[in-house]
# Entry
Amino acid sequence: MRNGFDVIVVGVGAMGSAACYQLAARGASVLGLEQFGIPNTLGSSHGESRMLRLCYFEHPDYVPLLQRACDLWARLEHDSARKLLHTTGGIYMGRPDSEFISGTLRSAVQHRLAHESLDHAQLAHRFGQFNLPKDFVGVYEPGAGLLLPERVISAHAELAMRRGAVLHGQEPVRDWQAGDDGVVVHTDRATYHADHLVVSGGAWSSRLLGDLGVELVVTRQIVGWVWPKRPELFELGALPIWAIDNPRRGRPGLLYGFPILPGSLGLKLAYHFPGEPTTPDTIDRQALPPDEDDFRPALGRFIPHADGPLLSMHVCMYTNTPDSHFIIDRHPAHDRVTLACGFSGHGFKFASVIGEALADLALTGRTDLPIEFLGLGRFG
Ligand SMILES: Cc1cc2nc3c(=O)[nH]c(=O)nc-3n(C[C@H](O)[C@H](O)[C@H](O)COP(=O)(O)OP(=O)(O)OC[C@H]3O[C@@H](n4cnc5c(N)ncnc54)[C@H](O)[C@@H]3O)c2cc1C
# Structure
């Protein structure tokens, strides 16, 4: 077996598959090593859908990256000849002075993104699915939508392999070393050598990367599917992606969800807020009846027409940084190692452009993409 590569990518999930694709597209020899299947349901990238929105309340600096990500999503759809995203529009609801609504508008205005501000009456008229407090307003983003995560990872992985990448599923990386001459990666099957290592290990990043001087907290997240009392109001075409400001313990939190997708059973919704801290090895992956409390009370309050029987629940993981912003950088102790981690529950929509940034950093040591604000340096 060939074991010398330009780049080895550890973790072929959302970010790693995109990195493999970008590296292979540039003619680099690349090996992707994934401990589970490609794709899998044990990391952070399963569950049918991920929101894609550009009016980004988290910080306006993300918007140029999102614009580039969208170009790359369109290219991936074209090159793979697969349906990977639905443009549904997005409706964001909350009090005007909330971080969610004010931050959404700040990004929209600063980057001249198409959007509409709706007062309470307009919101109630346009989106009768929701029952909101009188002081709630809305921001509608026509260009928002959703990505199909398992298909996206498959598309990136397949195109990477068609361009020469070697991807191995079910092959956990046990350890790695980096020196002046290159990197060495050990698995139970073989020892591999490369010029550069990309580590995109999701919830396992702390174990793979050692001490970065930044705590990454893995949390257990619940996603639910319910059968609405009036399903016709919640189907693709009738409902955009949606999010409602619903703070918890003084911190912003969002009840959010998706329209019912063809071929999928029920309305998917979840609460965007870090759940119980856990580890990827000890997490209880079985969703239990009390987990429904994560979203059921807010569902009854804000979306009574959807407050029907539970169909299923999934367990997923967030990997949270102290400031909820991503980390993309060189390893502080190893020039030949690039890392992407800490996506804090909002990273999937960026995967295409993060793959591009990782390929730039691995092959040339620099990138023109505006990712400085995501570097480790911000933690001091
Ligand atoms: C419930 C939920 C809802 C979300 N909703 C959204 C949303 O609407 N929009 C959005 O943009 N983002 C969303 N996110 C966040 C987004 O899905 C994640 O940020 C993103 O998928 C993380 O990608 P990743 O590549 O870092 O991790 P993963 O996709 O989990 O990939 C990491 C991979 O590394 C592998 N790995 C780890 N250790 C090893 C090893 N030693 N050897 C080999 N392989 C290894 C793992 O098995 C895994 O496959 C959501 C996340 C969750 C959990």
